[in-house]
Amino acid sequence: MSPSPRGKRMITIVSVLVGLSVISTFLRLIARVKRRAGFGVDDYLCVASTLLMLGMLVELILWCVIGGNGYHESTLDTTTLQTFYKIFLANQFTYFVLTPAVKISIVCFYRRIFTTPTFMRVTFWLNCLMAAWASAIFLACALQCRPLRAFWDKTVEGDCFDGRRYIIVNQSFNVVMEFIILGCPVPMIWSLHRSWREKLALNGVFALGGFVCFASIYRIVVLFYIDPTDTTWTIYEATLWTHVEPSVGLLVSCLPIIRGLFPRFWSMTSSQGTRIQLGPTGTDRSGRGDFGPSASSEGVWSVQESRELGNLKDITVQTEIELEYDSARVDVDTQPLNRHAPSSIQ
């Protein structure tokens, strides 16, 4: 069976988004290596999420080619319908692992930047909550029909709960988490003693996740379009946004890191000649410079004008000088630089 026009459209759109996600992940890893920064949990989760996205793309292609996604249910035979629901189930399992992996990756990235004790505690429990929810929803997916075969084989007598309601509940949780993750860095950034333009520029780096929030909300809306009597046709919008949401989330999670590969572009686009640089200040919590492996991992130390930056360890506002450190050097005498670097950085 060849894909329907709807199926071809979905495959094209999702292939482009997944391709961009793969490229952004590759550039992310290059940025880490270039900055001599070690790979963290956020990077490993990003790679795992990329592989899961590729898996979902394969599922989508099979779903449209042999599963009848995009056709009216009345035009499909029993074997094709069973294949449709088998792939539908596999797609649910993949999605329920992928979305929390992307979210936890973003939060782990935050934890490499903002290292205040309160923020670290809050984000730790936030990650625990998302991991626990992911485990619960994955288990619920496996138990949505008893026996599970009844999900795809309608000739088998079984007991299944309302699958659409269950997916909507999970998606509602995703929306709440998206907004929490989007808002996490805002208080940290606005506590900086900077101009409002510079604060807006920093917030803009993270606010790109706002589209992911929109995608999550819109996915709830289109879930109500599914008609159980013609699922293969009415699931089109839900299928598309099920793939758009995590792929855009993965892409957005990489942008703050890969932007370091194009410093001239960002310096030209920043306002009033001030560049907003994501990277470690090279200081420990006592304010002493540390360019060794114990420093944070973005790999750039910025010499800043003598203005208060607040308590953030890994975000600086860079105006003139940028020094790259060698991760092989553990002890560096920073006294000559202290005339330019604020002692209040923690």
Provide an overview of this structure.
With about 350 residues, the protein is mainly α. It has 2 domains: about 5-260, Up-down Bundle (Rhopdopsin 7-helix transmembrane proteins); about 280-335, no CATH class. The chain has helices spanning about 5-35, 40-65, 80-115, 115-140, 165-185, 185-190, 195-205, 210-225, 230-235, 235-260, 265-270; strands at about 145, 160, 275-280, 300-305, 315-320, 320-325. The radius of gyration is 23 Å and the shape is elongated.
Could you say what the CATH topology of the largest domain is called? Rhopdopsin 7-helix transmembrane proteins
Shape: elongated
In what order do the strands lie side by side in the largest sheet? 1-2
Determine and state the CATH class of the largest domain: Mainly Alpha
Radius of gyration: 23 Å
Q: Output mean pLDDT.
A: 77
What is the total tally of β strands? 6
Biggest sheet character: 2 strands, antiparallel
The CATH architecture category of the largest domain equals: Up-down Bundle
The fraction of residues in strands falls at 5-15%
As residue ranges, the low-confidence spans are 268-346
Give helix and strand order, one letter per element, not per position.
HHHHEEHHHHHHHEEEE
**Helix content range of the residues, please?**
55-70%
Distance between the amino and carboxyl termini:
62 Å
Number of domains: 2
Number of helices: 11
Structural class: mainly alpha
